[in-house]
Design a protein that fits this description.
It comes from Flagellimonas aequoris. It is a single chain. By secondary structure, this protein is mainly beta. It has a single domain, classed as monomeric porin ompg (Porin, Beta Barrel). The protein has six helices and 19 strands. The chain has a 14-stranded antiparallel beta barrel with strand order 1-2-3-6-7-8-10-13-14-15-16-17-18-19. It has a two-stranded antiparallel sheet with strand order 4-5. A hairpin with a 6-residue loop joins strand 11 and strand 12. The longest helix has 12 residues.
Length: about 375
């Protein structure tokens, strides 16, 4: 009964729920793929090539080398499944410090609390209260390799505590380590006929690491290794008015579930063979292992469009759209967001409207972020 309850909880909170699609790719710790800050989530859940902010740790830590102030702190709160429960949420905190004009380091913590659950073997038994949770603790270092291009590496410790003591087995959390490799390009300001402009490009290969395993000798679960690439352009109309247009593409570098023995269905034997794929081999296989070939590989790529208007760097309006194939998860939604800055403090809000037949766990949810930037200023021109 306990194992069933934990399984139900895990399935409820996973952002990719698809009862009909056998080829939808699922991974362990899916909370790592949730946009953890209100600025990114206001632009369609993107951030690999947007301008720098304190929350770059999740999206592209190479952006920290272009920070405009010495250091900053950001905290975010995201309610999850708010229409069903009120104690499931994602908390995010980041800190960055710029060492000099060329380099910076940062730390981040993401904590996903699944609320309080009552466990009983029988209806009249006294309940045992448990609080399943998952978290990731990471650090990064970024360095400018030129005035316009930077790269970063990040390390991450991941813990997933979804099992509990039942008297016959331990309740240790499943743990794993992962790394990120990222790059960011920001062009100098370019003078066009009626405005100035600036190009941005970014990539991040995140969560490269071994699998999570909850039972000794049991099933191994792939981490959500992911490739993000994106581009953006800033329309700088004058010193007070800037409009940024961004686009981003994502692909999970995880093998596609498939029929290995060719009997027309995915069986337990196929799942066993799938589990034997190493994470390193899986990264390369993920580019060409879809059963229906290239057309299905394209369906495994999600894309997003986002825009941000900034007025005097004090007021921001944002909007975005995220799209995923109906066969690979069916997440489709619009987002809206706003930001307000006063001196060193900034607050950001975002809201999501689902356009898919599959209900989104973040639908009709208001997300919050609070940022403080302070210290020496850097021009980064």
């Amino acid at each position: 009964m306990k194992k069933l309850l934990i399984l139900v909880v895990f399935l409820i909170v996973a952002p990719r729920i698809s009862a009909q699609q056998e080829r939808a790719i699922t991974t362990a710790v899916p909370f790592l793929t949730i946009a953890a800050d209100a600025r990114a989530s206001g632009m369609g859940d993107m951030g690999v090539a947007t301008s720098f902010d304190a929350y770059s740790q999740q999206w592209n830590p190479a952006k920290y080398a272009f920070a405009t102030q010495k250091m900053g702190v950001g905290v975010s709160y995201t309610p999850y499944l708010e229409t069903i429960v009120n104690d499931v949420s994602l908390l995010n905190a980041t800190f960055y410090n710029k060492l000099n004009d060329r380099s910076a380091f940062a730390f981040g913590l993401r904590y996903f609390g699944l609320g309080e659950i009552e466990l009983r073997q029988t209806i009249d038994q006294e309940a045992t209260l448990v609080k399943p949770n998952e978290f990731a603790l990471d650090g990064s270092y970024s360095l400018k390799l030129s005035q316009s291009f930077s790269m970063a590496v990040a390390g991450r410790f991941i813990s997933s505590n979804l099992r509990f003591q039942d008297g016959t087995q331990d309740s240790q959390a499943a743990n794993a380590f992962a790394v990120d490799v990222a790059g960011f390009y920001r062009s100098p300001e370019i003078a066009y006929s009626n405005f100035d402009g600036r190009w941005r490009l970014g990539f991040n290969i995140s969560n490269i690491g071994g699998s999570l395993q909850y039972d000794e000798g049991g099933q191994q679960n792939f981490l959500p290794t992911n490739l993000k690439v994106g581009t953006g352009f800033d329309f700088i109309f004058d010193q007070d008015n800037v409009l940024a247009i961004n686009t981003e593409f994502n692909k999970l570098l995880v093998p596609t579930p498939r029929d290995f023995n060719g009997d027309g269905q995915i069986t337990s034997e196929d799942n066993d063979e799938y589990q034997n794929i190493s994470f390193f081999s899986g990264i390369f296989e993920s580019f060409g292992d879809a059963p229906d070939g290239f057309s299905e590989e394209l369906k495994e790529i999600t894309w997003a469009l986002g825009t941000e208007y900034r007025f005097r760097e004090a007021f921001m309006l944002r909007g975005g759209y995220f799209n995923e194939s109906a066969e690979k998860g069916a997440r489709k939604y619009f987002t809206l967001g706003a930001g307000f800055k006063y001196k060193s403090a900034q607050i950001d809000l975002s809201y999501l409207f689902s356009t898919s037949q599959v209900k989104n766990p973040l639908e009709n949810t208001l997300r919050f972020s609070l940022t403080f930037n302070f210290g020496e200023e850097f021009l980064n021109d």
